[in-house]
Specification:
Pfam families: ABC_tran, BCA_ABC_TP_C. This protein is an alpha/beta fold. It has ten helices and ten strands. It binds adenosine-5'-triphosphate.
Length: about 260
């Protein structure tokens, strides 16, 4: 399936499913006596791009882990495209179109860019346990090349991962998250450690993703976050304390005092 076909298929799905990609209602996650997130209620529409911001320990990663199924919430419900997935294991959420990226790299260093993406496409398709080499007409090869292009790495498609720059490796991780027609992606600090030029490339890649793919981005770089998101949720001490457009958040007095003024990050 091409990216364009993905979009059409998603449009058809969108017409029959709920308009929300993600709905959290009163989600709390306790670690012993510590509540990492408390009573988080959050709705993200299909195709919406949301930034979740907050200082260290605000609960952003815990929120991601509850959405992916890595953590079971202590209380509250999580719905994905209208379906209650609160108790679903991670792979069931992946099957429904949820993906995430991690702060650490999960790439095969000895393989090329194209091979990494091809394997990711195979991993989420049927027949993935075959060890046969792909046939030249394997549709997943075409699909992999499209994803390599979507993350601006066509020039490096035959380069081994070990020879890519750090920024290019992060771009490749985005291609892996795009394998298998995702509908919603959780990006965990994709700009961390990138140079200004690499950040600009990242912004272009995220803004260029097909419109039906919504996402949440956790990002310490406000500049990147506010340029790739249409809505922003601010967290503080495990709770949501403000939501708004990038402009509203940027100009909010309380946000400036709590987050922007005091050496955030
Ligand atoms: N597995 C865990 N066991 C115990 N406490 C945890 C665990 N994971 C997170 N916490 C605690 O929960 C709180 C929220 O942490 P979390 O990592 O979700 O914050 P964050 O906003 O992602 O921070 P950062 O920006 O530093 O990644 C912190 O007090 C943290 O120490």
């Amino acid at each position: 399936m091409t990216l364009v076909e993905d979009t059409r298929a998603a449009d058809r799905l969108g017409s029959v499913s709920s308009g929300n990609a993600l709905e959290l209602r009163g989600v709390t996650k306790m670690f012993g006596a510590l509540s990492a997130i408390s009573d988080v209620t959050l709705t993200v529409q299909s195709g919406e791009r949301r930034a979740v911001l907050g200082s260290n320990g605000a609960g952003k990663t815990t929120l991601f882990n509850c959405v992916t199924g890595d953590f079971l919430p202590t209380s509250g419900t999580i719905r994905l495209f209208g379906e209650d997935v609160t108790r679903f294991p991670a792979y069931e959420r992946i099957r429904r179109g949820l993906r995430r990226t991690y702060q650490i790299s999960l790439l095969f260093n000895g393989l090329t860019v194209a091979d990494n993406v091809y394997l990711a496409c195979r991993g989420v398709s049927r027949g993935r346990f075959s060890f046969l080499r792909p046939r030249e007409d394997d549709a997943l090869l075409t699909r992999a090349d499209e994803l390599v292009e979507a993350v601006h790495l066509t020039e490096w498609r035959d380069t081994a991962v070990a020879n890519l720059s750090y920024g290019q490796q992060r771009q490749l991780e985005i291609a892996l998250a795009l394998a298998g027609a995702p509908r919603f992606i959780l990006f965990d600090e994709p700009a961390a450690g990138l140079s200004p030029a690499e950040r600009a490339e990242l912004v272009a890649i995220l803004r260029g993703l097909p419109g039906h793919i919504g996402y949440i981005i956790i990002e310490h770089d406000m500049d990147v976050a506010l340029r790739v998101a249409e809505s922003v949720t601010m967290m503080h001490n495990g709770r949501i304390f403000k939501e708004g457009t990038p402009e509203e958040i940027e100009n909010d007095q309380e946000v400036q005092e709590l987050y922007l003024g005091d050496g955030h990050g």
